[in-house]
Design goal:
alpha/beta, about 10% strand, about 180 residues, two-stranded antiparallel ribbon, five-stranded parallel β-sheet, 5 helices, globular
Length: about 180
């Protein structure tokens, strides 16, 4: 009997740890479990995002960073960045989801949001990146701090979109990237 109880305890799946929302922005280990929510934002899964995408009127903003040029490439080596695929119609604002960003990147982010919302802080915006990625959480939190009122956050990101069977489209970064 004791052996059966011990075996049951050892085989039981550990309970999923709740991730608390930090007060500030996440500044390290960006690919890690994320909170269930973001105060002031509405969390959506891939199905919810697809419904918003089909309805139209919601700006989709991808904040996945650009792939950096590999260091130590021999001089004269041609390097081509991997094409970036995202949700069709999304605006790509690379490198804007880090916890700490330079003022020039902050301006790029603000200008990008103003562009996709027509300067209307009540216009809805959906932020995403990859699954389990804090960068979209940071960007959504930053948009809320900037006064945007209808912020959606999709924690499953483009990975969840693809897993749900939805298509992707190649996109270039929004012009003016620092």
């Amino acid at each position: 009997m004791i052996r059966a109880v011990l075996l049951a305890c050892l085989c039981a799946a550990p309970a999923a740890a709740q991730v608390a929302e930090p007060e500030g922005y996440r500044t390290s280990e960006y690919r890690a479990p994320v909170p269930d929510g973001l105060a002031g934002a509405e969390v959506v899964d891939a199905a919810g995002a697809r419904a918003l995408w089909e309805e139209g009127g919601v700006a989709f903003v991808d904040v996945l960073p650009r792939t950096p040029r590999p260091e130590n490439l021999p001089e004269g080596t041609i390097w081509r960045e991997v094409p970036h695929e995202t949700i069709p119609g999304a605006t790509w604002l690379p490198n804007t989801g880090y916890g700490e960003i330079a003022e020039v990147t902050r301006s790029y982010f603000r200008d990008g949001l103003a562009e996709v919302t027509g300067g209307d802080p009540s216009s809805p915006i959906l932020f995403f990146c990859k699954a389990q990625c804090w960068m979209s959480w940071n960007a959504a939190k930053r948009a809320l701090a900037d006064g945007y009122e209808r912020v959606y956050w999709m924690p499953t990101g483009v990975d969840g979109w693809v897993k749900a069977g939805h298509e992707l489209a190649e996109v270039a970064p929004r012009p003016g990237e620092p």
